[in-house]
Design goal:
5-stranded mixed beta sheet, Peptidase_M1_dom, 8-stranded mixed beta sheet, about 20% strand, Peptidase_M4/M1_CTD_sf, 19 helices, alpha+beta, Immunoglobulin-like
Amino acid sequence: MAPIDPHSFTDSAHLLTTHISLTLFFDFPSSTISSATLLSLPTPYIGPLTLDTRSLSISSVLDPLSLSPLPFSLSSPDPILGQSLSVSLSNQTQILILSKTSPSSSALQWLSPPQTFNKTHPFVYTQCQSIHARSIFPCQDTPAARVKYAAKLNIPRQLSAVMAARHVERRDPLPSEAQGVCDDSVWCGDDRVVEEFVMEQPIPPYLFAFAVGELGFREVGPRTRVYAEAVNEVLDAAAKEFAGTEEMIQVGEKLFGPYDWERFDLLVLPPSFPYGGMENPRMVFLTPTVIKGDSSGAQVVAHELAHSWTGNLITNKNNDHFWLNEGFTTYAERRIVEAVQGEDIAALNIGIGWRGLVEEMERFKDNVEFTKLKTNQAGVDPDDVYSQVPYEKGFQFLWRIERQIGRSAFDDFLKKYIATFKFQSIDTDMFLNFLKANVPGIENEIDLKLWTEGTGIPPDAMEPVSNIYSKIVSLANEFKLGRMPREDEVADWKGQEWELYLENLPKTVEASQVTALDARYHLSESKDYEVRVAFLQLAISARCRDYYGEVEKTLKEVGRMKYLRPLYTALVQGAGKEEEKVFARRVFTEACDCYHPIAQGVAEAILAKHA
């Protein structure tokens, strides 16, 4: 057996699925989904076919034409990969699998009514990246296996569904379509409705996504709606924050070629969503923390939009090459931001990224494998080593190539790269070969092996150059000498300027300095979580226990890992932190039910390591 992906049981000798047809019955009281998964292969196949599953109960595997059972076996569970489902085929092109999710499915978060904005209806949503689609339905859960799919979602009638796919119709259930997931009488209950979707372009399984709840929307552009829970304040704030989306799509098309996904809708999820955004095609998922009231949250949208070309059109073959998704997308995002918001804002963005990259070098100093672009993740949970390295070191690599050959030539190269590999999954060597073929001699100017396989930050990486960036960094340096910025110096600062300032302050400051800074600028109460969390990290490192109430409040009101990881780590890492460790454990115990399973796992790992 030769796996094609360190995070999948998929065998390189087996055929890859080309289409999946899903019939899903949502049971909110039990927090489970019963599903019929019809997998289609490109040609008839004889022999074993290995699929990925996690925490699924498999009731039967059938030949869909004869409905006769097919022999199958499940391996014992692997803590990272889940269980392999091996099915014996005898010249079939399709197999039908009946299964049911576990209430603890790693991809799904089930929210009870009190955990939602309106407090009246339940809510469920997915997060399948990196390797969680297998906890919803059996599949070859590797980006190497791109699939088209169709889905019928049977849900309570008072709710609605959205999906990262084209909506076909909302209609009454039909008795002939339950496929064995439940009795026809249950499928066709008066209180049930079917929402039907289709994805006609081949996508990697981690881009499978849906949300079901009490949803509303606002139109914000010719190909963009903003969806959220049906709460006017949330919908109006989101529509205002993302009003410039169409302009960004048009800038993206100028830079990278046609937008191939028809719609670019946005879904603002409840505060427990573990990421800033997830680039699900046609329907980007967003944390509500990006709604900042000053349109700066649009930068996260710019990043997810950029994925429409780099990540969704061209995908890393597996997680060892994750930088191909995220480094390219960070570069593309900053080009869009520069065109729409100006060079200074793009430079701030690069500067914040640079600080993040430097901090990741410290985080991985005892595990330098994960400071490389091309990594070896065998035996490693990708959620545990998720970091800014593929984003920011990947960005730095592409920026270095741009500086070498000039922006105009690099733009031509990017367009050709996207056109050549679209709807394919590739690895680092394929990219480097394409680069060398299209930019002859580049390997003599840039050490490509050092950049992709070397550890740390290469010597020809670069901090941004801009007046505003330099001014903020020098003000942060002056703080070390006891000087706080004057009000006239920060009068026009928004969240990004404060974030950059705070991230450049020394990690060890006096408690009195922290208190004085907050007394003047009220950073601990900032509505911008980037600013608040950066300040609270400073307060924790200075042992300012006066702020622990604000730390607790923040850890309990959001589930975004970008905030949970540094706050929990700051509390428990280092010597003499017994009081903080007890505090962190208590807060986690009280808050964890409101976190997505992925975020729960990350916080638990931090506490297990240090507390």
